[in-house]
Specification:
Two copies of one chain form a homodimer. Chain A is an alpha/beta fold. Chain A is built from 19 helices and 15 strands. Chain A has helices at residues 17-30, 54-57, 62-68, 72-79, 86-104, 112-129, 180-187, 230-237, 254-259, 298-309, 327-336, 354-369, 385-396, 402-409, 433-456, 489-497, 526-533, 537-540, 556-571; strands spanning 7-10, 13-16, 107-110, 140-144, 191-196, 208-209, 213-214, 243-248, 263-266, 290-295, 340-343, 373-376, 469-472, 501-509, 544-550. The mean pLDDT of chain A is 96. The A-B interface holds A 270, 275-276, 281-286, 314-319, 321-323, 398-400, 402-403, 430-434, 436-441, 444, 447-448, 450-451, 455, 497-498, 553-555 and B 270, 275-276, 281-286, 314-319, 321-323, 398-400, 402-403, 430-434, 436-441, 444, 447-448, 450-451, 455, 497-498, 553-555.
């Protein structure tokens, strides 16, 4: 792959990709109000790994702490009643977002002046009408840098996209077009104020690009914020945003949610609108990326999801199904009382590392103690996870890298070495229509086999119903050290099946006194060995461990209710 | 393309494709009970074009006429109350189906003995429990020969598939596997008794293959029954079945419904289960084929659709969305009262022929008279029908013919000349992943533009709502003469948009005294010229003209209610 410096045209001037990236990096920093910045020199990550809580509070007023430490759902109960002003809430989060970017490098774009103007309008609206503009009246919401917003670049981490519409320098859509999710957030009264960092190509469990570099985790700056919605994870994890939207084609909402101690929803295809967003390998239709919320509590991700569904996105995105909010799914979970979980302790490819096993068992014990049933989850060979893994990997390689190499080629910038799990070193042959069709058939058959297996569990559960959810680790190791994320499949099998899944923190954090690397084991594969090499209790100390709660297709309301049950059990 | 006679292996014996086809043809005939057959010699089509009504009644008892002339919905009101026995109803339809096959050649498979045994069990169940087995208790239902049923071949019209599972002679699924729709029909108490003819490849608006030949229209045997669900259309049109299921990727439910004076529904993707069915180019994911009902009244196609939805197919087919029956959509149509229709008089490619225009205007006048509004439907250039046409044609050609050539190659049989609209003469290069992705993006953008245009009509309708439905012809010419069906796009744009559409007979039939070929016109394209060459009032005399009522994605309940409004207006 070409890594030589070539010239790119940015704003009519020819420049190197390094210079274009540096200029953008500085331009982002220049938009941060000076009064919101932590005085330099900043502490080094080794010196101050955790920058949340007490460290952050030193640079905020008590009122700013109160506001920014409040969950999205609770903020909205105040802003929609006029108890908190939109302007005050917005400014508090802008302040904390600026600190987040200083410490973690998590922003691609800011829109602070427009955000404050929007907040002022919302306050004026409330003053006049004595009612909120929408469900999210006055709530700051951050968005992954795949969303197009008027007046802002969308780079998706590509230097070659700077100053263009998705690489097209002549498109009239540049800085004028808005994604459907953006429209809907505005209509619901959200305050949009920034766009967050992504890895080049989006196909990475970390977040790294040549503009903002490698984005850090606020709880432990020695580890990754996750990816690809890593800027969201870092920002929300630092409480520089009360919640936002990422996207997920292989785990990209769930990994950052898990790594930053947050809650996240991966809905099924066709529930939330992707229309008008930038993407990698756009038009690849075998496994579709979905948009999903990341926030600090179950009720906050529910609020964000419901706000979109209640906006009736099926009139704006031709791929969204007309499925209104189904509170009855949640009510059924509550009235059923006893739930049955399948626990996935080993997917047959990678056995999780010690702290991840400990997090998983903490959840299993908590739900058992709350009166629920837990059974082992071992899918049969017709749909075992190796098959699902292979289908996902084949899908990522369908175009042989054509799309991402084109994006790199616009500026001549090199891909980060972190991407090498899913991006080939050189351009490969593309798959043909027949090969893609055969893959689609194979995928459908595995989906059917998994469905039949899930149905079959009704015969063995004490409730007489199929299991309600799978409990599984989102990652075999704790939040990744730099360039040590070899394996996304713990989340990706969910994308192959198009299931709905929620991330819930287990309450367990890495503890070097308890969590030891496994010794004397024989690795079943290179990927298992690498996953275990990705665990170092001394470096990952204090980093959070989460679980995925996985439901079937289009069970978002049910899975949010299940997540609430589990969350309460863990906190009991 | 190879048209030489090669040897194929059928049931362990080597034989030519002609011999294998002849043997199957005779085997089908041999399953028809002799007492149900019309005494030979049969009248020639020219002599007796219309074999429905009085002609058919000559060979049936008054009681058989009473039963078989009753619509599916009305049959079920009797069979579910024990007023009519399942056995009597089943035998009456078996009798008439045998006559249909003699006269039209519309059956691929029969399962009469099992059907009668099923009917006996249903009657015994009712006698014991005093309640029906399901919503379709005792209703005979016919199925297109893409559905797999235990004990029967599925050939899809390919000689090379005889004695195999979709061409695979060693598959254990052969004659053992059942499609999900088959399971659901059985669970709802339907009596399955036959599978109906399709054209080789399924990509044809007529129905023709080397086993049963060219399938005729019961209302006028000089014209086609339509395709690809043409066997269904012919059988239901002859009242040899009260209703059944076809499939539709480009018009294949709607064309046979229209040609045979019937009602048919093309639902959107993900509403009814396709799981476990044979298909052409299986795994092509750009435009998905859907399954839909064909029957003699709106309430009959609603009954068949609701019976499937109420079976909760989302637990059996991983591609079906969990969308229960939404009677509220229908209630809204009724309570709205006034509806607004957009009428598509010319798609910019082919202007319809005279009788089709007359049928369209009859519908327009009827709905206006009933108090509804009709506006012209002229999509803007971002989503004009030429773009949609091109996307569909590109999709059909993605694999360059690989799949269908493979199927022909199994036996060495030649494709029928009728197929040449969509099947290339020689194998073409396959499209690559990037080309397919670009097509998918183009399709999505056109879907979005069409959606935005539809939304924009709210500004001009008197109701303040966007138009409720498009009224459009399903075909520019009347039911096709043999090998004169050059243009399926009047239906296919609906598949590109994944819209829900219902076929309703206009009440107009071809009348040589009124309907004259256009003269002195300049054809805008070859396809327009050919479409007009496909109209001959003397041959197509008496053949029915239908309209499509097209709604947006996943509006099946709404569109069935709209169809009822239009149907009542036409009959007023």
């Amino acid at each position: 792959m070409a890594t030589t410096t070539t010239t790119v045209t940015t704003n009519g001037k020819k420049t190197s990709w390094e210079e274009a990236a540096r200029a953008k990096r500085e331009a982002i920093l220049a938009t941060l109000p000076r009064e919101y910045l932590i005085p330099e020199p900043l502490p080094m990550p080794e010196e101050q790994p955790n920058v949340t809580g007490a460290f952050a509070h030193k640079y905020l007023s008590p009122r700013e702490v109160e506001i920014t430490e409040t969950n999205a759902a609770d903020i909205v109960t105040k802003t929609t009643k006029g108890e908190w002003s939109a302007v005050e809430v917005t400014k508090a989060f802008i302040h904390r977002a600026c600190m987040a970017h200083q410490l973690l490098g998590c922003l691609h774009e800011t829109d602070f002046a427009n955000a404050i103007a929007t907040a002022e309008k919302l306050d004026a609206y409330f003053a006049e009408h004595k009612k909120p503009m929408g469900m999210l009246h006055g709530l700051p919401v951050s968005l992954k840098d795949q969303c197009h917003m008027k007046g802002l670049d969308t780079t998706m981490g590509y230097v070659g996209w700077l100053g263009t519409w998705e690489g097209d320098a002549s498109s009239p859509l540049y800085k004028t077009h808005e994604s459907v999710i953006v429209n809907e957030m505005r209509r619901q009264g959200a305050v949009l104020y920034c766009k967050t960092a992504v890895p080049q190509t989006l196909m990475c469990g970390e977040t790294v690009n040549n503009i903002v570099g490698w984005v850090r985790n606020p709880i432990n700056r020695l580890v990754s914020c996750g990816g690809s919605s890593g800027g969201e994870g870092a920002l929300v994890g630092f409480k520089g945003s009360p919640g936002g939207f990422g996207t997920d084609i292989g785990g990209s909402v769930r990994i950052p949610s898990a790594f930053n101690g947050l809650y996240g929803l991966r809905p099924s295809n066709g529930r939330l609108p992707y229309e008008g967003m930038a993407n990698s390998m756009d038009g690849q239709n075998t496994i579709l990326s979905v948009i999903g919320p990341i926030a600090g509590s179950v009720d906050s991700i529910r609020l964000l999801t419901k706000a979109v569904v209640d906006s009736e996105p099926w009139w704006e995105d031709p791929l969204v199904h007309e499925i209104p909010w189904r509170e009855e799914q949640a009510e059924k979970v509550r009235s059923d009382g006893k739930l049955v979980f399948g626990v996935l302790r080993d997917d047959g490819i990678v056995r999780p590392t010690a702290p991840v096993r400990r997090g998983l068992e903490a959840v299993v014990e908590a739900v058992k103690k709350a009166g629920h049933e837990v059974v082992d989850w071992v899918p049969p060979k017709e749909c075992d996870h190796k098959l699902l893994y292979e289908i996902a990997n084949t899908t990522w390689g369908l175009d042989g890298g054509t799309d991402v190499f084109k994006a790199f080629g616009l500026s001549g910038e090199p891909p980060a070495p972190h991407l090498m799990v899913h991006v080939p070193e050189t351009l490969q042959a593309e798959k043909t229509a027949s090969e893609i069709a055969a893959l689609n058939v194979r995928k459908r058959r595995v989906q059917k086999a998994y469905m039949d297996f899930w149905n079959s569990t009704a015969k063995t559960t004490s409730t007489g119903r199929p299991i309600d959810a799978i409990i599984a680790p989102p990652c075999p190791h704790p939040p990744a050290m730099e360039n040590k994320f070899p394996y996304t499949f713990a989340t990706t099998f969910v994308n192959v099946l198009d299931y709905s899944a929620v991330i819930v923190p287990s309450g367990v954090v890495v503890d070097p006194a308890v969590d030891k690397p496994d010794e004397g084991l024989t690795w079943r594969s290179d990927v298992e060995r690498k996953a275990h090499e990705g665990f170092d209790p001394l470096i990952q100390k204090g980093a959070p461990i989460a679980v995925q709660l996985i439901g079937r297709r289009l069970q978002e309301e049910k899975m949010l209710a299940v997540a609430e049950v589990v969350d309460k059990a863990l906190k009991a």
